[in-house]
Amino acid sequence: MWKLLILSSRMLNSGVTELKPRPREKRPWKKARSKEFDLAVLDIFLPDTKGYDLIPRLKEVRPDMWFVTITGYNTRELELTVRQHRVAYFMTKPFEPFALKAVLDHMEKKRNASP
């Protein structure tokens, strides 16, 4: 099971989270350093920054961390920009909590199959 760090302008109510940080978290890498997170779910458009801009900083703290990005603004250009950060999954809103759980379950299978 994933140990999730969720940074979203609206809290996800998926039932799979262990931590729900404040939406305007200034330094999420501090939380990542203090806990054993292995996957981050990042809203692309946070109030103070773009979620994908946080990925390099989070990778400094947790190099093996996986990333799922979520957005309500789906354009091909945005997806290409986000995918340059090697996110595992690019998810568009709105979505039901079971959809996120299905993505996480699929990713868990991939992670367990990796050498």
Q: Determine the fraction of residues in helical runs and give it as a percent range.
A: 25-40%
**Per CATH, what is the topology?**
Rossmann fold
Overall radius of gyration: 13 Å
Shape summary: globular
The biggest sheet, with number of strands, parallel, antiparallel or mixed sense and barrel status, is: 4 strands, parallel
The ordered H/E elements are EHEHEHEH
Assess the beta-strand content as a share of residues.
15-25%
Protein architecture, described:
With 115 residues, this protein is an alpha/beta fold. It has one domain: Rossmann fold, CATH 3.40.50.2300. Helices cover 37% and strands 17% of the residues. The chain has 4 helices and 4 strands; from the N terminus they run βαβαβαβα. It has helices spanning 28-34, 51-61, 76-83, 97-113, and strands spanning 4-7, 39-43, 66-71, 89-92. It has a 4-stranded parallel beta sheet, covered by helices on one side. Helix 1 (28-34) links the parallel strand 1 (4-7) and strand 2 (39-43). Helix 1 runs parallel beside helix 2 (51-61). The protein is globular and about 35 Å long. It starts with a strand and ends with a helix. Mean pLDDT is 78; it is low at 11-25.
